Amino acid sequence: MARLADYYLVVTYDLDKRAEGEGQGRILQRFPEKDWEDSPFPQGIELFCQPSGWQLVPERQPASFFVAVLTDINSERHYCACFTFWEGLDNPQLQKAAGEVDEADDELTVVQPAKVFAPKSLVLVSRLDHTEVFRNCLGLIYTVHVDGLTVPMETVVGNLLTCVIPIAGGSQPAEQERAASSRTITLGAGDRQVIQTPIDDALPVSGSTVAQLFRQLGIINVLYLFCAALTEHKILFLSSSYQRLTDACRGLLAIMFPLKYSFTYVPILPGKLLEVLSTPTPFIIGVNSFFRSETQELLDVIIADLDGGTVTIPECVHISLLPEPLLQQTQTLLSMILDPELEVADHAFPPLSTQPSALKIQDKEIRGVFLWLFARLFQGYRWCLHIIRIHPEPVIRFHKAAFLGQRSLTEDDFLMKVLDGMAFAGFVSERGPPYRATDLFDDLVANHVERIRQEETCPHKVMNHVKELAEKLFKNENPYPAVAMHKVQRPSENSQNNARSQTPFPMLDEVTVELFIDHAAAKLKTAPPVVKAELMGMVPSGPPLGDTVDRNGNVMANSARRLEVVRNCITYIFENKMLEAKKLMPAVLRALKGRAARVCLTQELNQHVLQNRAVLDDQQFDYIVRMMNCTLQDCSHIDEHGIAAALLPLVTAFCRKMGAGITQFAYSCVQEHMVWATMQFWEAMFYTDVQSHIRALYLETEEGEQHNNHDERDGLGDGREISALELASEQSRLWPTLSKELQTERVQKEESTVFSQAIHYANRMSYLLLPLDTSKNRMLRSTGLVDVESVSNSYVTNSIAGSMAESYDTESGFEDAESSDVANSVVRFINRFVDKVCNESGVTNEHLKALHTMIPDIVQMHIETLDAVHRESKRLPPIQKPKLLRPTLLPGEELVMDGMRVHLIPDGREEAMGLMGGPPLLPAEGAIFLTTYRLIFKGTPNDPLVGEQVVTRSFPIASLTKEKRISVTLPMDQFIQEGLQLRSCTFQLMKIAFDEEVASDLAEIFRKHMHKLRYPQHVQGTFAFTVGQCGKMVVEHKTKDKNQSLKTLSKNLVKSAKRTIGRQYVTRKKYSPPTWENRSSFQSELDEDEISVSEEVDQSSLTLSSTMRSSDRQTMSNVVERACCRDYQRLGLGTLSNSLTRSKNEPFRISTVNRMYTVCRSYPGLLIVPQSIPDTTIQRICRCYRQNRFPVVCWRNPRTKGVLLRSAGLHAKGVVGFFKSPNTPASGPSQADSISLEQEKYLQAIISSMPSYSESSGRNTLSGFTSTHMSTSDSSDKLRQPKIGALMKQVMGAKEEAPGNFSRGALGQRAKVISLSQPKVSGKARNTPRGKWGSIRGSGRLSAYNPDVGTRLAGKESPQPNGGPSEALFLRQQKAYLYIIGDKAQLKGGKQDSFQQWEVVPIEVCDVRQVKNSFKKLMKACVPSSSTSDPNMSFLRCLEESEWMALLHRVLQVSVLVVELLDSGSSVMVSLEDGWDVTTQVVSLVQLLSDPYYRTFDGFRLLVEKEWLSFGHRFSHRGAQTLGSQNSGFTPVFLQFLDCVHQIHLQFPMEFEFSQYYLKFLAYHYVSNRFRTFLLDSDYERIELGVLYEEKGERKSPQVCKSVWDYIDRLNKKTPVFYNYMFSPEDEEVLRPYTFNSNLKVWDFYMEETLSEGPSYDWELRGQPERVAEETLDKADCGGPKSQRHIVWPCYDSLSKVVPDAITKLLQDLQSLEAELGQTSEKWKDTWDKIKAAQRTESKLESKPSFSSSLLMSSNLSHQRRSQGVYLQESGVGSSINLAMDHETSATSTPVAGRPSTSTLYSQFQSTESENRSFEGILYKRGALLKPWKPRWFVLDKTKHQLRYYESRQDKECKGVIELADVESVIPGTPTMGAPKNIEEKAFFDLKTTKRVYNFCAQDSQKAQLWMDSVQSCLSDA
Question: 849 or 1372: which carries more pLDDT confidence?
Fold first, then answer.
């Protein structure tokens, strides 16, 4: 029984203590005066009566009522029911004003009402929550006062305070129960109320609050709040109604049952206490919406607005939701309850009424759903309880890991958090004890699990179950619905209204009330106590958790077979059949990934343990340990499946004998796993063991003692055995009946059981935590043992020995200096463990102290035994490891470090791991070698199935881009090893783990050497220079004296440059130029006003030879030999002749102004400039450009004579001058002005040099005024020709859509790709993007004067395919003569005059940083370091994110634009960045596309030498080749260029003389540093080092090539590997590739790998080991028939070698045959040329209409696009392969549409094999009636059994077929009318078929006979 109300008080407004506008409350009266002993009076109630603050109001408010909840220090809840009404009083403000007039009183300005109303509250404080009863009682007191009833107020209050009601109805006989669970009370004012108490007070009472909460917030929102409350987030409710806040909080708590909320719970928080909201702990708090603004800045609080129905979750808060499918099922059920119409909303005939149940019932149904939900979440939880003490109090722990593991929910965030939470800890301690009263939830979890499991998928069945639960819940709250007879008076209407006449609320007579209370108390004492017998009983556990399937159950499908493998392997090991075991090992290690196999392993091993011991020999021990390690490495650190737990006894059982009586146990080899360093694991293990021992203690039967199975699920064997919980329950029941002595005896027994287990565990832990080599401290480093904070399931924190542990460390007698750090940390870890478990399981303090003293000794003793084991284990003979294979080295390559044994570990490329089929080649075991040139791994795969293959992976040391340390656990070994991950820019990745035999300092030395070789101090330290110099890094480079003049030149250059830098001077006198050697000073680049040095001589009249001394001529002739000069002469851009009579009318000349590299250090010595520009001007102009790289000509279009120029971007100061229109008055002549004028003069000179300019005699004014109409009218022919304007807009305007880096713009083009393949479009039509035209002109002038560059160009036709200019003269007026491709960023702010003759095309270029980052991402995409299943990390996604393709698209697009402009007759100047990265790329690509010469071997070499090497692309700097450039990182600008060439090659395979392999070869060697070609940054640097002109006779060793070109030439003579057989160029063909992302392919150079021999680019290393392998194969196979089949593996074999293409194969066969016959084999090129020539003549003879075309040499493909001749995307034709087309069609160049028949495809290859074409040749055939005889090409086909004929031999379309099946006979015929003349008679024969007779005529009688015989034989064969 309990009091209905503890305290009654009246609280009123405190008039004395008023702060500014802020009132306070004070307690007017309180009964009883003194506190009850069992419930002290709660403080601060006044705040809660008016949560928004005490205030006076001008009008009377209606009376209000709400219940606040206060929590006291013992976490008891007190319910304060507040009834508030308003009493009038005279306005205190007015009185004050009358008293004294205060000047500063602002309030006087407001008109004050005379009367104000103050709140007064009647408050009941109770520990019971009966809201309605409180409302009625307080209402009654108020009614008595207002209506002036006759009843004395004291009586009512006295009765109220003395009323006693039962807390809960028990299960008593019916008539008593009625009395007990419903109690009628009266307060003596003629009222009567029935109070119904719940039957079971464990279940919360919710009225209809839960249903209300769902109505206010909706299903999803409440579920969010529910999950947030369970996972301990902060929740704040807002509402303007106080009672609703209380109800909402009460509803939320009700649905959390059976968990109880244990954090701050304040349903109504007064405004004064708002700072409580910033508390760090979780809470559920309600606040009036009046304070909404103050809650805005709370960052981590979830705010639920009840009035608005919203839940706001801050960004930083992540709520873990229920696991699926539970979440979905719960939502479905809730919507079925709250919105039953939803289900039938779509029905044609909905049921008549689907009203939701009444609120009260709905409330219980919702709670039923949540009960059902918790029953599913916690089902089987009792099987994971460990009972560790039974007496005197049960102590119970929950085994979280096992629970999660069996539910396979270890990954589930929500459940993890709930199990770790305080609420669940309370749940375990409350519901854990096995002997107690049970409630609805216990029943549900124990007895309905099966039903829940079966019904969970069928919502309607679940709904029925929920309704049953709801009924029980409703019955619990309303045991007697019939009895509810309430009679309570309410105040009458009139009394409320005429409250003006009201008297204040009276003071009560305290004595009377106290008397009432005392009287009642005395009565209670005398009354017999009501004893409610609580029914205790054993709590049923329910069915155990079945092993639910792993989430990825599919993987375990074939587990039975796997378990068989595991069992067999173990049997083999113990039967000593080691070979068998070895074969099974890889399969076993794979199987052990699955849980079932791991469990099986522990069970199997258990059977081989006798008396806790199993002695093995070395090899058995090794295998067992490997299996254990493999098992453990896949266990998580909390060991949810109990595998580590099951292995724990085994690792101390298996051992091997070593010398000197020492035994090594398995635990010393399995320590490297996280699980051993996890406190939670040890606690769970300890409690499991303690439970089984305590169970054994109480099992009287002896058999119980043999069960040392630690798995807590063992207790079920068909009911024979009692589980520990059942046992404990029985013991608890008997406990009160035992005598004192027996009780203490049992307590002591239990305590000593726990204590002995603790000692046992201290030993076990020291076994697993102390490493074998204690000096290494390995364990602690890898697991961080020292800082592992225990995150455990237990919440007991009163540890005594926090500090004791420290003091005991030092007391131990043993102190060993070097191992003490390991020992100490292990001791500390064990101490913490012991403290924790002993406190929780009630071990006495004496025992605990004893333990702490023991632990250091245990550890120290163990260290000593380990030292002995460690010593012995070093003496063991090492396990036989595979022999190290030596790599073959290049001539001149030397080993820097000999092989170190390592394991090559698989990375993210799947082919080598066997995932794509085939055996796993990796991991492999072998050695890593570091040479002066490469890093080489060579070894054999670990998988025994491919053990004899050799795996090689290598890359040049110079291409290393990233090195990082990794730690690796190998599947076979037990140790975590140090490893390195090395990434190379040749797209190779090596992940290596050093074998344990490699000392760590050796690995460090390896790294240092690697760094030294990767970043030498100077470029002379690279391999290309040191090759063959016996390993010493020789910096001094010896040159022969022949080149003396050159050496002195370079010395003087450097000296004099140093001298000049400091001093500036001006020479205005003329003087003769000094000779190079004794020139004392050079033109300083610093003086701007300097007049150019050689100003006195007119350069044009001087030639080189006249201006230099003879000793230098040799050097200069070298300069002339350089690539540039050869090319300039080829292009007719200028010659170096000795005569002074050079033709003045040549527009360009070769200038020697830079011969000393003073004008521009990164340019070559000879440059092409306009004839009219003197060198002095050049010296001035160059300063406007970055790096002094002024515009020079590098190529001229032979047809239009437009030139291509290159330069760097302008310096900032030059820009404005550059664009100033000449007529703007400048403020005084200045340096900048004159320079900008000279600049313009320079550009004008270039324009003047163009013949088109001189033809049009100056600028035609029309162009300036051309109207837009005029331009557009010309472009009407839209589809036929590509428009430059569109192209231009695309290059510039691609940007307008998306600002930021251009790659986005490029990617944005993707959507526009589709319309590319219109069949009519020739070449490269592009659809114009939407972007605006990005012109840089100011908008100041009229557009009529300034037609867009784009529109102006759009009207221009591109030249006709036949090369003639198309309507050129008229259109030429509309285009600019010179286009300047400039950087958008630089060209801001300039204006351009409309009459100037050049246009600027601003584009965005990719800067070097972008290329660098893009390349890094590309490498990661192509060669990932680890495999991932994350869809966001897939290859294509990574490739897209790298934006590499977008960059290629960008470069190609600009290049194509320039090609179009040049082809249209304009000149183009490319002037981007510093002129050595993007500029070089664009200029080279333009030349490659425009000039077929550059697509040959010589041409391409020349192009690279000229544009990349001579014009100073900074190879060393961009390739980070030396220590100095290390920080700048690797930027593959050249690689990007090669990739662009590769893309063009793919689209035009017949235009290039070199193959794709040639490009890959260059891509590999440009970073490999094997050749000197790509070292250093400019010609100047190469001259300085004496590398540029090496004398022809200088090479000492012929095998060491210094230039990559020489090497390629040599190789090309030997083998056709660089040659493209499809090469058959068009004359003057200009290529226009498609550049969209969809047209670009990933280069296979990035992806391919040959593990059999490493990269194939070092040709000397290819194929040596293979011959040996073949010989051994021959020997082995001599017994059986030898198979001709060869298995080709991806990523292992070199495809080009194993499966060569047909022509290469034939050439190889030819060579080998010649060798066999002893002939001298001729070079492959000669053979090839002969065949080519023969083929041409043959085809001429055979086909009467003469045209040269054959399968290989077709050069008559259309002028459209010669893309492998396969017209797939472009022409819209099927898939006919148009390699040999007839000459008639080549004019129209449209292949016949439609898919050709199979027979044509069949017949299009001329094959010499006898099956296809048994006989073929030319026959004359007589046409049908009146048709003449015609020669046709006939083919007799045995396989198809037909005779086909074609127009000519080349024809693919068969003109007719004679089926041989229809042929009746072949007979000699006679010539008929119109037969060919002069052919003998016997050449005629007839073929008679069932349908008609064919007349034929062969060339002579023999041929005719042959034909007849052949046909006859076909017929007879059939």
Answer: 849
Highest average pLDDT, of 112-116, 1135-1139, 1305-1309, comes from 112-116
The confidence score (pLDDT) of residue 793 equals 38
Nearest to 1880 by CA among 1871, 1893, 1889: 1871
Please give the full DSSP string across 1066-1135, using - where no structure is assigned. ---S--PPPPTTT------SS-SSPPPTTTTS-GGG--GGGGS-GGGHHHHHHHHHSHHHHHHHHHTS--
Across the chain, mean pLDDT equals 75
Q: Which residues lie across from 1378 on neighbouring strands?
A: 1398, 1467
Strand ranges (E), 843-922: 895-905
Q: Which comes out higher in pLDDT, residue 253 or 1253?
A: 253
C-alpha neighbours within 13 Å on the C-beta side of residue 436: 15
- Residue 1322 has a pLDDT of 37
CA-nearest of 930, 840, 946, 952 to 885 is 952
Q: At what angle do helices 359-377 and 326-338 cross, to 10 degrees?
A: 170
**What are residue 1820's phi and psi, to 5 degrees?**
-85, 135
- Strands 951-956 and 895-905, by their bridges, are unpaired
Q: Of the segments 135-144, 350-359, 788-797, 1228-1237, which one has the largest average pLDDT value?
A: 135-144
Residue 1201 and residue 1133 in contact, taking contact as beta carbons nearer than 8 Å:
no
At residue 1915, does pLDDT exceed 60? yes
Helices (DSSP H) in 1423-1555: which residue ranges? 1435-1442, 1444-1463, 1478-1490, 1497-1503, 1515-1518, 1533-1547
At 1215 the pLDDT is 44
Query: Cβ of 450: how many Cβ atoms within 10 Å?
Result: 11
Q: How does pLDDT run across 1325-1361, given as a tens digit for each residue? A: 333 333 333 333 333 333 333 334 443 444 333 333 3
**Cis peptide bond N-terminal to 392, omega within 30:** yes
**Dihedral, CA atoms, 1781, 1786, 1791, 1792, nearest 10 degrees?**
-90
The angle that helices 326-338 and 459-477 make with each other, rounded to 10 degrees, is: 60
Rank 144-153, 541-550, 735-744, 1645-1654 by mean pLDDT and report only the highest: 1645-1654
Handedness of CA 1010, 1012, 1015, 1021 (dihedral sign): negative
| Backbone φ, ψ for residue 1843 (5° rounding) | -115, 115
d(CA 1411, CA 1425): 21
**Up-side HSE of residue 1360: CA atoms within 13 Å toward CB?**
6
On whether the CB atoms of residues 1770 and 1763 are closer than 8 A, the answer is yes
Query: What does DSSP assign to residue 1208?
Result: P
When mean pLDDT is compared over 90-94, 866-870, 1347-1351, 1562-1566, the highest value belongs to 1562-1566
Least confident segment among 1321-1325, 1447-1451, 1884-1888: 1321-1325
Residues 1528/1015, Cβ–Cβ less than 8 Å: no
Q: Which residues of 108-145 are buried (b: 16+ CB within 10 A; e: fewer)?
A: eeeeeeeebbbbbbbbbbbbbbbbebbbbbbbbbbbbb
Residues with Cβ within 8 Å of residue 451, at least 6 apart in sequence: 465
Q: How far is the C-alpha of 306 from the C-alpha of 296, rounded, in Å?
A: 16
Burial of 1775 (0-12, 13-18, 19+ CB in 10 A): exposed
User: Could you tell me the maximum CA-CA distance found in the chain, to the nearest angstrom?
Assistant: 156
Question: Rounded to whole angstroms, how far apart are CA atoms 788 and 415?
Answer: 23
- Reported as half-sphere exposure (CB side, CA atoms, 13 A), residue 330 has a value of 27
> Which amino acid is present at 430?
E
Distance CA(1272)–CA(1264), nearest Å, equals: 15
Contact assessment for residue 1204 and residue 1470, using Cβ atoms and an 8 Å cutoff: yes
Token digits of residue 1452: 């190609």
Strand partners, 85: 120
- Across-strand partners of 1167? 1151
